[in-house]
Amino acid sequence: MIKDNNSFVSETRENMKGGKGSVTLQHYFSKAEFGGQHIRVCAKLIIPPGASIGLHDHTGEDEVYIVLKGNGRVTDDGVVRDIHVGDAVLTGLGKSHGVECIGEETLEIMALVVTY
């Protein structure tokens, strides 16, 4: 299956997971489009300057972030670190994370949530 960039379904969430501002999720593929039952999310997270996704845990699943654009600050299992284009974060096994856009440019992250 191949999708054009303009065919993705987008949704905007206010105060996502208790975070600040609004975050847009641009879904690459829906859960139903995968043959397996273990992919829950496959999307680009678009986080404007000053916005964030609040701290939340991942019990029974893993989430991968890959930074595509911009600069952010992630809290991953209690460790706070700045993230930049090309960086990757893996959170799971009941651990928690949150992310915020700290630059003047929108932060874009590819997110993949896999359940087990």
From TrEMBL:
It comes from the Bacteria. Keywords: Isomerase, Metal-binding. GO terms for molecular function: isomerase activity; metal ion binding. The keyword Chloroplast does not apply. Residues 46-111 form the Cupin type-2 domain. InterPro entries: Cupin_2 (IPR013096), GPI/OXD (IPR051610), RmlC-like_jellyroll (IPR014710), RmlC_Cupin_sf (IPR011051). The keyword Transferase does not apply. Gene3D superfamilies: Jelly Rolls. This is Mannose-6-phosphate isomerase-like protein (Cupin superfamily).
